[in-house]
Amino acid sequence: MNFMAKKRILLGVSGGIAAYKSAELVRRLRTAGAVVRVVMTRSAKEFVTATTLHTLSGEPVWSDWSDDKSGMDHIELARWADRILIAPATADTLARIAHGRADDLLTAICLATEAPLAVAPAMNQAMWNNKATQANVDTLRERGVRVWGPATGEQACGETGPGRMLEPDALVQRLSDSFANGRLAGLKVVITAGPTREPVDPVRYLSNRSSGKMGYAIAQAAHEAGAQVELVSGPVALQAPDGVTLTRVESASDMFRAVMVCLEDCDLFIGAAAVADYRPVEPQARKIKKQAAELLLRLEPAPDILAAVAALKSRPVCIGFAAETENLQEYAQKKRMQKGVEMIVANRVGAGLGFETDDNELWLVWEGGSRWLPKAPKTRLACQLIEQIADLYLKQPSGLKAPEPHAKHSA
Ligand code: C5P
């Protein structure tokens, strides 16, 4: 399975002959859907050029401190990455990381990051077998660094033994697998995403600015957590994440019907869609002609999908969203009670946050608790949200629980 879509991979390249494979690795990572930024050590440039890696990654390439234009690039890159992979990782690079050195940009980033770090060692077999290298590798492993490889075989120096860098395909697979976790294994999750379109006449509709990015990111995160995911989406310009079943709809009533069909055996319902609150009372069968006189459009409430699911006798745990411009915490609490749901995820909209943006910040409220998720890419927030939901859902007896009887677990 491929969990690499939109993942931010910082690829460190250090100076060994296997660096020529880094170019292919960048290409494969991008094909798998990742965003790749490369940081090279100075000696890596002897083996592969920054221009090659820049062209293949489509992103700037960093190497010396002089590339750290803002003086803070190393911190920003450390925060930016979802994963850091150093491939190839030379004996010297492993030693410097094991000793906590920060004498170049790459090692400084490794020291500053909270992202999981993986290394793909590549060196002569005697250098690999040397006790100093083995001690450094043991230190790194103890600190949670993943050591992928080396493979055993023929080496560029003519010797045979352990020290070959794993092939790019194998490294991409390991990175992808590193995003998988089984927190929601065996559970079915239904998610709504995107806006709805409420027809005015055959060519016009009422809608909103929702891009669907948050809901799609949640669907991907739930899939990575091992859940069976059904995504019901209004019209957006996004592709369904791999492994997620997608039903496309237009209006709030379409979405309502599609959700009700998906609910059988559903454990968690997450309403991330920006469903219309109102819709035209009488959509016209023919295009409304322009006229000089004022035109009045009568609106009626659209079906409230979240409230309807929450009101079902036998229902999944329900999680709703609240887009607010102010008083986030107060409104979130109120909305949780009003909708009768187990959790509300409130997000601020406006001023570079919320709709149509890649970043967001979230306030999660549930019975007896709350949590602030500071500004971050929606893909990362989605993973944190799913982790929090899994923590609460799996925590019994005081975790997230739908009122009995629950469709699947009441027996
Ligand atoms: O009522 P309000 O629109 O503020 O509530 C937002 C939450 O309710 C979101 O989770 C949204 O998906 C859901 N909702 C719904 N159907 C509506 C309106 C909102 O499911 N008609």
Mean pLDDT: 94
Outline: elongated
Examine the secondary-structure arrangement and name the CATH architecture of the largest domain: 3-Layer(aba) Sandwich
Give me the CATH superfamily of the largest domain: CoaB-like
The proportion of residues forming helix, as a percent range, comes to: 25-40%
Oligomeric composition of the shown chains:
single chain
Distance between the termini: 33 Å
The number of distinct helices, counting runs of at least 4 residues, comes to 13
Poorly predicted regions are none
Main β-sheet description: 8 strands, mixed
Q: What is the CA-based Rg, rounded?
A: 25 Å
Strands in their spatial order, largest beta sheet = 13-12-9-14-17-18-19-20
Q: What ligands does this structure carry? A: cytidine-5'-monophosphate
**Fraction of residues in β-strands:** 15-25%
* Count of folded domains: 2
CATH-defined topology of the largest domain: Rossmann fold
Structure classification: alpha/beta
Task: Reconstruct the topology from this structure.
Elements: E1 8-13, H1 20-31, E2 35-40, H2 50-57, E3 61-62, H3 73-80, E4 83-89, H4 91-98, H5 105-112, E5 117-121, H6 125-129, H7 131-142, E6 146-147, E7 151-154, E8 160-164, H8 168-178, E9 188-193, E10 198-199, E11 205-206, H9 213-224, E12 228-233, E13 245-248, H10 252-262, E14 268-271, E15 278-280, E16 299-301, H11 305-311, E17 317-324, H12 328-339, E18 343-348, E19 359-366, E20 369-377, H13 378-394
Parallel strand pairs: 1-2, 1-4, 2-3, 4-5, 5-6, 9-12, 9-14, 12-13, 14-17, 17-18
Antiparallel strand pairs: 7-8, 10-11, 15-16, 18-19, 19-20
The structure holds cytidine-5'-monophosphate (C5P).
